Amino acid sequence: MSNSTFTDLPPLPPYSLTPRPPMIPGISDAVLQLLAPIVAYWVVSLFFHMLDTYDLCSHYRLHTPAEVLKRNHVTRYEVVRDVILQQIIQTAFGLVVASFDPIETVGKEDYDVGVWAQRLRLAEDYIPKSLTVVGIDALSFAQKLSTKYPQLAGLLAGGRYPTPSFAPWELATAKLIYWAAIPFLQFFVATLIVDTWQYFLHRAMHMNRFLYTTLHSRHHRLYVPYAFGALYNHPVEGFMLDTLGTGVAYLVSGMTVRQGMWFFTCSTIKTVDDHCGYAFPWDPLQHVTSNNATYHDVHHQSWGIKTNFSQPFFTFWDRLLGTAWAGGDVSARYERDRISAQKKVDADTAAAAAQASVVNSPTIDLGQAKKQASASQRQVLEDKENGGARILKEEAREEQEARQSLRRNTRRKSGFDAMSISDRVAGSLHNRSPTILHADGVH
Questions:
Q1: Its Gene Ontology biological processes (predicted)?
Q2: 275 lies in a domain?
Q3: Which of 137, 153, 254, 403 qualifies as a cystine partner to 146, CB 3.0-4.6 A?
Q4: Are both 157 and 295 inside the same structural domain?
Q5: Are residues 119 and 107 in the same domain?
Q6: DSSP labels for 17-36?
Q7: Mean of the per-residue pLDDT values for the chain?
């Protein structure tokens, strides 16, 4: 075999560079990279808005329409206005940055694949040495396989093949690395960077009173999130949290313009989905990780505002640093809010008051849950601009009314089945199942 093998590295193919043609004629990829996330934002938001408007899939809603009407402290007009402002700032910044980028070119792809094939060939040289450690004579073994399995024989011999070109498996593997493995790794690294950036900055905006009252409290006027409110932020916060965060991830991961377009678009869709207000069992974005609409919705409640800071992809920072909601099943809290909001709507329309009840939760870490809820309520109380003190007073009154109603119901009946009452009340309020809500985001 040694008399007919080639040990030199195969030559790399020549190449010539030309500007990359745009994906859509007439629109440069740099502009498309900025427009695609905006289009995706409003298309996905419109889908969820249609579900809200026509009351479709209501049994998957985290909140009822009455809650959207009564618990939020900002109008839809203000939300749309601020989101558009953030997108204008984001687009302007992106255009400025893009003006400094070099023109992307094509034509070097086969050469780059060849480079990876050469790296594989160089790595093969260590195979005979490695097999020798475990007592296998790789060269003799390769000699026996050379007739029937020349490719395997060349691999075992340390990259010595009967032809001067790359082996088919080397080229196939190199293409897989170049076209799939590296882009996947870049996307994954970018998601980790975004999650890290947003977690610590988001957490700082809750821990620092100035940052919260000046910037982040605006986003928390939405106690009941909905899809097109995902980017409802103070313009400065939106720039720092979203624009800079994804921009840094894009640059550090070394993505191309088109890769960046997909990354920005996917991040946008994930953010909208996390604020959509629906817990769908068939939504893949809500099951790839535990960071989903249910998980993030806890953060928007007055009792969970100091927890669940992670966004938009994973939850590992919350779990590592102990800021994940530790109160277990939150169905009772959600049920109270649904009933309270419905009672306010009924009062406004001179209708009969809705029946109130309290449901039991499974065994939880009460100490940690109380600590988290207390910290969250202190922050709500300090948020004077958004009526924090009034919100807590209303919740305290509603909780007292719910407990009084519970005692009345208990006196009327010899037995008390809290879960069955919860199910009946939930069914009367938009046919909503209470079992859909869990603190860990798993449905």
A1: lipid biosynthetic process
A2: yes
A3: 153
A4: no
A5: no
A6: -EEPPPSBTTB-HHHHHHHH
A7: 82
Rounded-to-integer distance, Cα 370 and Cα 366, Å: 6
| Same-domain check for residues 161 and 241 | no
The verdict on residue 22 lying in a domain is no
Total residue length of the chain: 443
3-class DSSP state of 24: strand
Instruction: Say if residues 325 and 305 touch (Cβ distance below 8 Å).
Output: no
Q: Count of domains in the chain?
A: 2
Write down the pTM of the prediction. Answer: 0.79
Query: Is the same domain home to 211 and 252?
Result: yes
The domain of 123 spans 2-15+113-167
pLDDT tens digit sequence for 140-165: 877 878 778 888 888 888 888 888 88
Decide which of 287 and 297 is more confident.
Answer: 297
Residue 58 has pLDDT above 90, yes or no: no
Q: What is the CA radius of gyration of the chain?
A: 29
Instruction: Tell me how far CA of residue 107 lies from CA of 15, 49, 112, 113, 186, in angstroms.
Output: 6, 44, 10, 12, 21
Are 64 and 338 spatial neighbours (Cβ–Cβ below 8 Å)?
A: yes
Q: Are residues 144 and 270 in the same domain?
A: no
DSSP state of 102: P
Q: What b/e readout covers 239-248, taking b as 16+ CB neighbours within 10 angstroms?
A: bbbbbebbbe
- Residue 122 and residue 97 in one domain: no
